């Protein structure tokens, strides 16, 4: 009898121990890179939905706030910044690219999640889409309501971002943007609403998929070159060339373009015409990209524009054309080569 119960105990522990150990070690490993923004911002009270400037939570506070993440992944953290996204600059972009590349190159790494203010989230997302060299998922996440707000959207967005980062279907999709249950492509997506939670929209193309409660559901893949198929490498760079955007409106003259050239711009993205100031800038070696202010649709290539040495931005909005032109200028000054890049990325 005793022997029998001993046998049962030995068998049970033989069966249970490896399973228990497996359950622990099998959790995928995700690194959370934090940069700040509304998702980390605190307001003076729970109804404070604007001007919430009572400090920001740390990466650890984000994790402690969401114990459910422990069931999804083993999460490590790295604070790259804790700022509003208007303060993200080349230094933080280059650090993010380098640190995410280093993390994803580790065999045990499954994916990366990046918290970011929504105001410029899509710029960082597109930059990483061009400079992270891995098929492993990189998911950008933010929130429209601060950490302290009633009915805040941050925790669900972060929970879904980790779900997307550990989903095998997310591999090779390029950098993803995760808010409001929607999975969007970094290249195609723009913040379209100043205040509502349904703000990130890929106007021409729609979302890639959804983080639904039953599963991560994808419906299409981005086709333009990104991440593991990108030719851009920022490993050795400590800065990026200056590129500015000149907005077009009735009676806009060349004053902004002249000022950008004086400030040292190596490239200027236009949202429309530009007149003599553009020619003067080109004569000084400044590269010009034609984008558009409408927020959707392609700027179609024309022989006339190409003959004038300008580049067209495909359907990249001006602020994303700026990112690609900055990276292009780290490799070449040749407008034909840069036009090829705009057609491929
Ligand atoms: N309102 C912005 C946000 O949603 C602030 C920022 O971009 O940092 O995070």
Automatic annotation (TrEMBL):
InterPro entries associated with the record: AsnASE_II, Asp/glu_Ase-like_sf, Asparaginase/glutaminase-like, Asparaginase_C, L-asparaginase_C, L-asparaginase_N, L-asparaginase_N_sf
Family the entry assigns: Belongs to the asparaginase 1 family.
GO molecular function: asparaginase activity
Cleaved signal peptide residues: 1-23
SMART domains with a match to the protein in the record: Asparaginase
Location of the L-asparaginase N-terminal domain: 29-222
Coiled-coil intervals, chain numbering: none
Species, as recorded: Solimonas aquatica
Domain annotation Asparaginase/glutaminase C-terminal: ranges: 242-342
Active site: 38
GO biological process assignments: asparagine metabolic process
Official protein name in the record: L-asparaginase
Keywords from the UniProt entry: Hydrolase, Signal
């Amino acid at each position: 009898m005793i022997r029998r119960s001993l046998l049962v105990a030995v068998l049970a522990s033989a069966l249970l121990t490896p399973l228990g150990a497996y359950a622990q070690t099998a959790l995928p490993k995700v690194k959370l890179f934090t940069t700040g923004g509304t998702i980390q911002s605190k307001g003076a009270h729970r109804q404070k939905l604007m001007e919430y400037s009572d400090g920001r939570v740390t990466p650890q506070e984000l994790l402690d706030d969401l114990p459910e993440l422990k069931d999804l992944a083993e999460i490590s953290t790295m604070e790259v910044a804790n700022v509003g996204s208007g303060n993200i600059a080349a230094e933080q972009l280059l650090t993010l690219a380098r640190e995410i590349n280093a993390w994803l190159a580790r065999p045990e790494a499954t994916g990366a999640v990046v918290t970011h203010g929504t105001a410029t989230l899509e710029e960082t997302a597109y930059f990483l889409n061009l400079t992270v060299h891995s098929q492993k998922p990189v998911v950008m996440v933010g929130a429209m309501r601060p950490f302290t707000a009633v009915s805040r959207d941050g925790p669900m967005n972060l929970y879904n971002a980790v779900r997307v980062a550990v989903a095998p279907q997310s591999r090779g999709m390029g950098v993803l943007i995760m808010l409001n249950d929607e999975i969007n492509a970094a290249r195609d997506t723009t913040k379209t609403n100043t205040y509502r939670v349904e703000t990130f929209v890929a106007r021409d193309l729609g979302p890639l998929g959804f983080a639904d409660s039953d599963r991560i559901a994808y419906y299409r893949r981005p086709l333009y070159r990104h991440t593991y198929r990108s030719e851009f490498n920022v490993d050795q760079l400590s800065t990026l060339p200056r590129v500015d955007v000149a907005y077009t409106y009735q009676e806009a003259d060349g004053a902004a373009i002249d000022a950008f050239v004086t400030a040292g711009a190596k490239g200027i993205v236009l949202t429309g015409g530009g007149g003599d100031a553009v020619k003067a800038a080109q004569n000084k070696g400044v590269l010009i990209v034609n984008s558009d202010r409408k927020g959707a649709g392609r700027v179609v290539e024309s022989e006339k524009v190409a003959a004038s040495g300008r580049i067209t931005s495909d359907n990249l909005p001006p602020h994303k054309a700026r990112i690609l032109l900055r990276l292009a200028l780290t490799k070449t000054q040749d407008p034909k080569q840069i036009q090829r890049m705009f057609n491929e990325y």
